[in-house]
Amino acid sequence: PRRVGALTEKAVQAVAGATGLNNHMGSEITADPDAMGAVLEVVAARRLFMDYDYGRGSDHEGFMVTFEAD
């Protein structure tokens, strides 16, 4: 999760004026609550929005667990 957070921070910094993140069609990371927690820590710290598309079916369980915890 620490590496995920660092990579998320680096990606946000690489896009000037970024106001949020988008996970189009889901991804494997959303099935991992710890990894999603690291992503959402960056989102919260930078006061960004998170747009999430459930396109991959039930692989979003980790995201929902993390989201509901906050």
Outline the structure in words.
The structure is a single chain. This protein is mainly alpha-helical. Helices cover about 50% and strands about 10% of the residues. β1 (about 20-25), α2 (about 35-45) and β2 (about 50) form a beta-alpha-beta unit. The protein is globular, with a radius of gyration of 11 Å.
Number of helices: 3
Element-by-element helix/strand order: HEHEH
Structural class by sheet pairing and helices: mainly alpha
Instruction: Average the pLDDT over all residues and give the rounded result.
Output: 78
Range of strand content: 5-15%
The CA-CA distance between the termini, in Å, is 17 Å
Q: Could you describe the largest sheet, including whether it forms a barrel?
A: 2 strands, parallel
Question: Approximately how much helix is present in the residues?
Answer: 40-55%
Dominant shape:
globular
Number of strands: 2
Low-pLDDT sequence parts: none
CA-based gyration radius = 11 Å
The neighbouring-strand order within the major sheet is 1-2
